[in-house]
Hints:
Blueprint: E1 10-19, E2 22-38, H1 40-44, H2 48-58, E3 61-68, H3 72-78, H4 88-95, E4 100-107, H5 110-118, H6 131-135, E5 144-146, H7 150-160, H8 174-177
Antiparallel strand pairs: 1-2, 2-4, 2-5, 3-4
Amino acid sequence: MYHGHPGRGITRQDVACRSTAGWKPVALSMAERTLIIIKPDAIQRHLAGRIIERFERKGFKLVAAKFTQVSKEQASQLYAVHRDKPFYEDLLKFITSAPSLVTVFEADGIIDMARKMMGATFGYEAEPGTIRGDFSCSQRHNLVHGSDSSESAEKEIKLFFRPDEVVDYKLANAQWLYPVRKNT
Length: 184
Ligand code: IDP
Ligand code: MG
């Protein structure tokens, strides 16, 4: 079995596929991974389950999870691109202030799909139907973090998980969730 690791951000996924010869494994794709953080405000507001449920219902595959208080060091790396922004210090204080649920989910195209499901950064601007649009009115306290590119995902997953903490396994219902071949 192939053991994916966060350094790659991708993993080979095989699914069973019906053919005239019956059910047989078919190489599907190199699935993408993203870091999703259920932020301290979501934990404090008892929203972790509802947020995870949305990603599960969409069909994303959970491959890692850790309930932890983000350290100053992790936070400064996670938000390094915002170092010069006026909200940077308060953002670091917030994300390190109480526990978060740090997760990795996997699916082809997950980075864009998850960002759409999260909604715009500010809760008061996010569309209804998105996580932030439904549960947040705030700028900083917007419940959830999701990687914004495969390069960020690769770096961010490494910040929180050792290679052996990201679990590669087969979803029994993969053939109902994902395309067997692109464009079919
Ligand atoms: P994103 O989380 O939608 O990717 P970013 O622009 O990367 O948004 O900002 C990172 C985080 O910093 C946001 O999720 C939010 O918690 C916080 N943040 C962004 N802009 C502001 C602001 O103008 N005021 C206060 N907090 C902000
Ligand atoms: Mg961002």
